[in-house]
Amino acid sequence: MDSPPAWPLYIYYVMSVPSLPLYIIVLICLLRLRCYSKTYKTTFYTILLQHCIADIIAMIVFITIWGIRMVPGLKEFYFRYQEYYIAAWTYNSIYFFLYIRCAGIVFLSIHRYLVISVPHHSITMKIQEASTWQIVIVYWVVPTLISIVVLKDTDFHYDALETMEVVAPRPVITRNTLMALIIVAMTCLVCVVSYLALWRFLRKHTAGISKSLQREKHLAFQVLALLCAFFVMFAYYIFQNYFSQTQNTGPIYTMRALYPIANGILSYINPFCILLLNRDFSRQFLRTLKCESVRISEIQVSTMNSHSVQRKLF
């Protein structure tokens, strides 16, 4: 079997150099703003914050156990102690963090639809009034429960010290790729349906949209741009699932080699979406970079006010 290409990993490194530090700064700015404004303590920003944390952890874990697994000294350690879930975590973590971020985009998309379209519904009210710890628990527990199917597998090993490729049983590969394809497909479907329903609502109420609702729309566009990256991951798992059904192992390793690019797009698009499509946050982000104090007057409590704004539309 030919060695899988290494260039996707190099592209991932190039993407990581500017994107990972930028993402960390965006996260720090979000945490800072939560100390000054109720806007950034709302359900939307709490979910978004968890999504940012999941992305950053996923990238750091991927770099640590996959990207630099060939570093002399480190690869000997990984190879020697691979039976202590190191080889298994190298493989299983890919699906674990994928499901966490799938849950995140679903929660964000459904939240956008509910807050803008049906703000007075009892479900919307409960979600908006949920405490931070409740949101955090739901965000992390739901995908973790889904991931138990993957995390319980331990029958993995590195093929050789020279290559450090993870070898997995074919039934496990087939099951996991099919499961990932189904979950990513369901994620895209739920989000697309949410945005189509939201688009229909906004189309009917274009004349009555206020400035506060315009801010809510901008937050929806921010999430919609992030959704585009999931379609890249969806295409990736279509091919991965197809090759896992065949007897030829070569394409499976090739697709695994291409994973860093799909994973990098999925993670690193989010900070750029936030900065380019969230003008309120972008202004505060620039002030943070300049080490200036936060201007409370510039922070709009849009999400919290959406309930009262919507009364004008009915």
Automatic annotation (TrEMBL):
InterPro entries hit by this protein: 7TM_GPCR_serpentine_rcpt_Srv, GPCR_Rhodpsn_7TM, Neuropeptide-GPCR
CDD domains reported in the protein's UniProt record: 7tm_classA_rhodopsin-like (cd00637)
Subcellular location: Membrane
Keyword list, A-Z: Membrane, Transmembrane, Transmembrane helix
Domain spans labelled G-protein coupled receptors family 1 profile: 22-274
Keyword hit for Membrane: yes
Protein name from the UniProt record: G-protein coupled receptors family 1 profile domain-containing protein
Organism from which the protein derives: Caenorhabditis remanei
Source lineage: Eukaryota, Metazoa, Ecdysozoa, Nematoda, Chromadorea
